[in-house]
Amino acid sequence: MELQTIHYDNFRNHPSLVFEPNEGINLIYGVNGSGKTSVLEGIHYCALTKGFVNSADSECLMFNSDFFLLEGHFLNSEKISTSVKVGYTKEKEKGVTVNNLDIKPFSKHIGRLPCITFSPSELIIVTGPPSERRRFLDTAISQTNHRYLEDLLAYRKVLQQRNALLLQLRDRQVLSDDMLSLWTEMLARLAASIMSIRLAFLTAFSQPFYEVSQHFSLGEYPSIVYRSSIGKITDAIAPEALYDIFIRKYQEVQHTEILRAQTMIGPHRDDIMFFLNDKEIKKYASQGQLRTFLITLKLAEHRFFSELLGESPLCLLDDIFSELDSIRVKNIFTLLESCGQSIITSTEVRPAKHISLFAIESLKK
């Protein structure tokens, strides 16, 4: 997948900007605060209909502007073009148009333009709460498995309804729990599907993750472990078996769930844990190791997507070189040479073979 051109109007601190990257590695350089990250964020909007750093749409609107508009043109490996427009106004909210057709819901667009990202703020995936690792997992899988995305969206709706019913039961607004069993059955069915797909993804992902890690000479064996709220589960367990386990577990904790008015088990409570040589990385690794681990995770995601989809995702890499030594920087460039089109930001010019350089100031109209 390649970005051919993208136009920005009133987006972040860019009243008007045009970016036309080349094939291969593209590096946008400039001082901090000059809008380099915003360029990546606009591309991310076109690919995934949301901001690069999960910002609210209103935060991307240029100060004193009534709207922002992004228009990107992309070309896949089969030379099929895709045009995406993302517009936002305070009155009409956000709209997404693909090849001149309005897209609703936006989830229909996910996976059409696969991309992977790196941002320093994403270190929270490794160091932060389970919700950040679940978000990484959900975003990765949703770009390659639309069934998963549909189940995930349905799960969130059912979970919300079930929690509302638990609250009513606790407050005795509803005296019978017959309805609870229906919501529980629906939730268990969706939970089993989601967990099954997650486990299959992590099993398949482990090989490219290990292969990429060897390029960075971590010196240790990296691994990812899925920690489920229903206890230890084998990778090969069938969805029907998972469904039976969920039903049994929900029955066991039903009384406590009513008291707390909260669903206590399910994919929304699960976590993935990152290890180097059986040691949890966030507990002992240095900043450089954490950053290298996240870069490994992201580039492995790119390799996995490429092999599964037969299409190289876009690489959007923000400030990727900070806190890395020259050897690791060289290793990143070596890996990116085989990753199709990548767009990198940096405060420094880093000339190297096969790299197109763009000063951020030269992109502004």
What does this 3D model show about the protein?
With 365 residues, the chain is an alpha/beta fold. The protein has 2 domains: 1-114 and 311-365, 3-Layer(aba) Sandwich (Rossmann fold); 123-310, Up-down Bundle (Glutathione S-transferase Yfyf (Class Pi), Chain A, domain 2), CATH 1.20.1050. 43% of the residues lie in helices and 22% in strands. The protein has helices at residues 36-48, 124-127, 130-142, 146-170, 178-215, 239-260, 281-284, 287-309, 326-336, 360-363; strands at residues 2-11, 14-19, 25-29, 67-75, 81-89, 93-98, 101-102, 115-118, 222-227, 271-276, 279-280, 314-317, 342-346, 355-359. Strands 2-1-4-5-6-7 form a 6-stranded antiparallel β-sheet, with helices on one face. A hairpin with a 2-residue loop joins strand 6 (93-98) and strand 7 (101-102). The chain starts with a strand and ends with a helix. The mean pLDDT is 89.
Strand content: 15-25%
End-to-end distance, in Å?
26 Å
DSSP summary: helix tally:
10
Unreliable parts: none
Reading off the top of the CATH hierarchy, the class of the largest domain is best stated as Mainly Alpha
Mean pLDDT: 89
CATH topology of the largest domain: Glutathione S-transferase Yfyf (Class Pi), Chain A, domain 2
Write out the CATH superfamily name of the largest domain. RecF/RecN/SMC, N-terminal domain
Structural class: alpha/beta
Please, how many domains?
2
- The ordered string of helix (H) and strand (E) elements is EEEHEEEEEHHHHEHEEHHEHEEH
Identify the CATH architecture of the largest domain. Answer: Up-down Bundle
Strand order of the largest sheet: 2-1-4-5-6-7
**Helix-residue proportion:** 40-55%
Biggest sheet statistics: 6 strands, antiparallel
